[in-house]
Structure formats: structure tokens, C-alpha cells
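Summary: Need help interpreting a holo structure output

Steps to reproduce:
1. Submit the protein chain below together with the SMILES for NDP.
2. Request a joint structure prediction with the ligand placed.
3. Inspect the C-alpha cell block that comes back.

Expected: a single structure record containing both the chain and the bound molecule.
Actual: see attached output.

Input attached:
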Amino acid sequence: MASTPYTIKWGIMATGGIAETFCKDLLTDPATRSVHDVKHQIVAVSSSTSADRAAEFIKKIDGPSTAKTYGSYGELVADPDVDIIYVATPHSHHFQNAMLALEAGKNVLCEKALTVTASQAKKLVAKAKEKNLFFMEAVWTRYFPLSIKIRELITSGEIGTVYRTLADLSFNENTPRTDGIVNFPDTHRMVNKDLAGGALLDLGIYALTWVFQTLYHIQPSPTKEPPRVLAAINKYRTGADENTSIICQFPNNKSIGVATTSILVGTSPHGTTTAAPAIRIQGSKGEIQVQHPAFRPLSYSVIRKQGDGKVEVVECPIPTDPARGNWGHGMFWEADECARCLRDGKKQSGTLPWDESVVIMETMEEALRQGGVEYPELITTDVFDAKSPLNTGNK
Ligand SMILES: NC(=O)C1=CN([C@@H]2O[C@H](COP(=O)(O)OP(=O)(O)OC[C@H]3O[C@@H](n4cnc5c(N)ncnc54)[C@H](OP(=O)(O)O)[C@@H]3O)[C@@H](O)[C@H]2O)C=CC1
Ligand SMILES: O=C1OC[C@@H](O)[C@H](O)[C@H]1O
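--- attached output ---
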């Protein structure tokens, strides 16, 4: 007889767009994705401003009526019933919010981009270590069966030595206009520097994810080589980056990654997923191409040098749960990883270890430095303040 699945009890910090998507995934039956060893429970939800908002959120996601609702993040992290906090606030808030949770003794899954600066990321890692807590950046794409398969193809030598990865995640947010002004107001988190807006921290991180999981993650430890970084950035009228390209050079490994991102042109000009590949992983024996969008690709192709030029296309659909209105977005796989790590006493995920999140933050920080993008002190400080407006919602 199968043993009882390990249940992990989630506390949700913030009630915005991604919190909704993630929670709906938590509420799907793991069996619909052939997972039987872990399951998820939402035991508390918090808005920074009102408990009513948290209650509305639970209704909206058709969540459990037993879940507690809070009108402050401080109350959420103090809830003794919560095993792990999911931080779903804008990236500007991640350092203060994740530290609030770690200081309260909670395990943390924190949305991407992990922080605004590398120093903040290092401080969070140090705190997780000090408190012996689990801590992970929520780069959900890494936990897709598609990503796992592609990493395996690379390490098994299927495309030979990988010399170059080209990766793009861009959306044309300018249409139907043609004047370079995007469809968001300047206050929107995508372009608002007070919320750490800009293409790189929001979208470019996925292009970098592909560069890192194909050129860095697979390098043998402990001699992993961080990249030399060369960046070009055009800035939007708010001062946030709008069009950013980063070359990551790994000279000892003879490889180069090019990560590009933009909010003015799209990886797919028409916005569909059937456009040209978003990612090309190029090796001595062939190439793997991954379909747009880089954060949620549904297929990849393998093109071998030797052979008859045949392209092997592999479809990787995301399982859905008929009992939950056929919902299934793909964020449940990272949640399953958190549950397994907690069950097994692991403090970090081998799929996205702390050192790799930090090196990626260093890469982005260096690119932003080269491009002259600066964020305000309130969101770049690495000094924790439980009373920061980022934690209290200005109350
Ligand atoms: N993994 C993925 O696919 C995705 C990840 N993300 C990441 O998730 C994070 C949140 O993005 P998203 O959900 O789209 O953002 P939203 O603006 O939809 O939600 C953010 C939530 O954060 C809380 N919040 C607290 N302070 C502020 C503030 N000053 N301004 C705005 N919101 C505040 C609010 O919740 P409350 O009122 O309850 O406190 C708000 O609803 C970002 O870091 C983003 O990068 C976003 C989209 C997709
Ligand atoms: O993480 C993300 O993935 C999907 C994008 O649309 C969103 O802006 C970004 O935050």
C-alpha cells in the first residue's frame, strides 16, 4: 500500500496576480500530474492592507474556508500553523518580506527576481543558513519536466559540448502604438523603478535562466565558473530598462550565453507560441530549440548534426485537473520541490541552489550597473527593517 503523502502547509504573502495563479496550482490534485508523495494545503493568506482582501482572495481561488486571513504580513509570518511562506509581492519588496519571514522562523519560497541586489540575496541566504530554514527562489520553469529532460540531454552528451546558448524573453507591449510608449502606466510594476520595474528583473531573468541552466548549472561543482558580463541597456522614460542584452562569457568552459529581453519587441511578433524558437542551445553535435515563452515552454526540438536533418519535436503539455475547472499552469512542480525538500530536511533545492541564485543576481546587478539603471535606496538597502513600509504596507 502507498504511504501517506507528506503535506506542506502554505502561508500566502500578497493577493495579486501571481499569488492567484500559484494558489490555483496548489489546489489541483497532485495525482493529475502523477505525483503521490506530497500534497499542499493553503492554511493562511495575507494582504498587506486588509484581511477582507485576503478573504476575497480565498473566495476567488475557490480556496479552503478554513484558511486564516490576515491584514498584515507580520501576522502571517507569526502563524504557528504555517510551514512555508510564499512571497508573491513585487521584486522591490522581496528582501524585506522574505527576511521578515525568515526572522520569524519560517521557510520561504520567494518569487523571482529574488531581490533587487546581490547583497540582499546573500543576506537572505545567510539568514536561512543561520536559522536552518529552507529558502528557494521561485523560478518555476526549472522544475518543468521539459527543463529536467533538456538538462539530462545536455549532461548525457546528446548535443555534444555546448558552446553557446541564445535565449530571449520579450513581449511587444507597445502595440498598437508605434511610439515606444508601452501599454502600462508609469506606475505599473513593469516600469516603475520604485517597484524595481524593468525588463531584466521581470522577464530577462528567464532568458538568463536558460543561459544558466544550460551553461552554468551543469558545470561540475565546486569549480563552477561565474560569467564575465557585458551588457547593453536602453532605458524607458521612467529610467527602468526597456531593451536589454547580456553576454555571459564562460571562458574556461569555452561557452557564451546571450540573454535578451525587451518590452518593445516580442520573441513572437504576433504573441503566439508558435513563433521562432525562444531558446537555442548549440552544441558540437547538434542543437536543442525551445519554444516561446521561455518561462512556460510547451515543446522543444532536437536537431542533430549527424542524421538526415530530421527535427525531433517533443511536446510537453502541462497537466490539468478536471475537478478544478481544468486548471493547471505548471507552478505546482516547484511547490512539489519545496514539499520534498521540507520532508527530506533539505534547506536548498539542488535544482536552483543558493549559490546559483546569487550568481544570477550578481549578473543582473552588473548588467544594470553597466546600463546605468539605479533603483531607490528603500528597495536596495540590505538592512532589514521589520517596520519598513515594504513590510507594513505604509501602515
Ligand atoms: N513566476 C511567474 O510566472 C510570475 C512571477 N511574478 C512575480 O511575482 C511578483 C508579483 O507580481 P504580480 O503578482 O504580477 O504583481 P501584482 O501587482 O499583481 O501583485 C503584487 C501584490 O503584492 C502586494 N503588494 C504589497 N505592496 C505593494 C505595492 N507597493 N505595490 C504593489 N503591490 C504590493 C499586493 O498584495 P496585498 O495587497 O495583498 O498585500 C499586490 O496584490 C513579482 O516579483 C513578479 O516578478 C509575476 C508574474 C508571473
Ligand atoms: O514571471 C513572469 O512571467 C510571466 C510574465 O508575463 C510576467 O510579467 C513575469 O513576471
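--- end attachment ---

Reviewer comment: The pocket of NDP (ligand 1) is lined by residues 14-19, 47-49, 53, 88-91, 93, 111-112, 138, 140, 189, 195, 202, 295, 393 (CB under 6 Å). The two ends are 52 Å apart (CA to CA).
Status: needs-info
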